[in-house]
Specification:
The protein has 262 residues and is an all-alpha fold. The protein contains eleven helices and no strands.
């Protein structure tokens, strides 16, 4: 878009994400970012960066809505429309496929109690796989895959349990942790990756039959979750992770867990 609006919308979207992560008031920044993006997207020289920024803002906004218990459907739909418009310009832009994956995962989380949640996990996983095929050397596609598999496994665990569902959960957790390790090799110490790794390990600990393995896996989960919370003590990520950390610590000490992941 007009290069000024492109730069402004990028800056404001980053500021909005940082405010959410730090637990600061972000409403005014969101409105300013939406206005800058609107100008950029209606400019005659609209660029792929403008669509990427619009999708990124939608992803953060929908995560905030999810945390606040507000319906993110309109934001998610808008984000997917921006992603589709960007992919018409550049069908092989990996970060747009990453964004599609993240949006479908958020939609699955929001719909968790509804039967149609199941439709979003395959879409989230397929979009992440497409991004990995296009750009295997970037951390974001592997991170999106791990994130989708984490929430798909968590959802599966809450349903009816049988041998087939146990196998699906075990496969999703193994694949998710493998994607995490690949991404962490590409981006060591990346906070959202540590969060996803910790959450995946906690899910694995909850499925362990042997107490010793359960305690050991829960201890690894607690270590990763603690690392993820430390830099963002009061923000959106910490709000999500604190109950998981309490559960991981309880399982690691073999106490009765107070809270479990949905």
């Amino acid at each position: 878009g007009g290069s000024y609006d492109t730069l402004l919308s990028l800056t404001l979207t980053t500021q909005y994400a940082n405010q959410l992560l730090l637990g600061e008031e972000a409403g005014a920044t969101l409105l300013d970012a939406q206005m800058a993006i609107s100008h950029a997207l209606t400019s005659p020289d609209v660029s792929i960066i403008d669509y990427l920024t619009a999708v990124r803002l939608s992803a953060w906004q929908s995560q905030a809505q999810l945390t606040q218990g507000r319906d993110p459907a309109k934001t998610l739909l808008g984000g997917l429309q921006y992603a589709d418009a960007g992919l018409r310009l550049q069908p092989n832009q990996p970060l747009l496929h990453v964004a599609r994956s993240l949006l479908h995962t958020t939609w699955g989380q929001w719909k968790a109690a509804a039967p149609d949640a199941a439709t979003h996990w395959p879409l989230a996983i397929a979009a992440a796989e497409r991004a990995i095929a296009l750009s295997p050397g970037r951390p974001e596609p592997h991170e999106a895959l791990a994130h989708a598999l984490r929430h798909a496994a968590a959802w599966e665990i809450t349903g009816k349990q049988n041998a087939a569902s146990h196998r699906r959960v075990a496969a999703a957790l193994a694949r998710g942790l493998s994607a995490c390790e690949t991404a962490l090799q590409l981006a060591p110490g990346r906070v959202p990756l540590l969060a996803t790794k910790g959450a995946l390990l906690l899910l694995r600990a909850r499925t362990e039959k042997k107490p010793k393995q359960r305690r050991e896996t829960a201890g690894l989960a607690a270590a990763a979750l603690g690392q993820a919370i430390e830099p963002n003590g009061s923000g959106i990520l910490a709000f999500e992770l604190r109950p998981l950390l309490a559960t991981a610590r309880a399982l690691a000490s073999d106490a009765r867990p107070a809270v479990t992941e949905p």
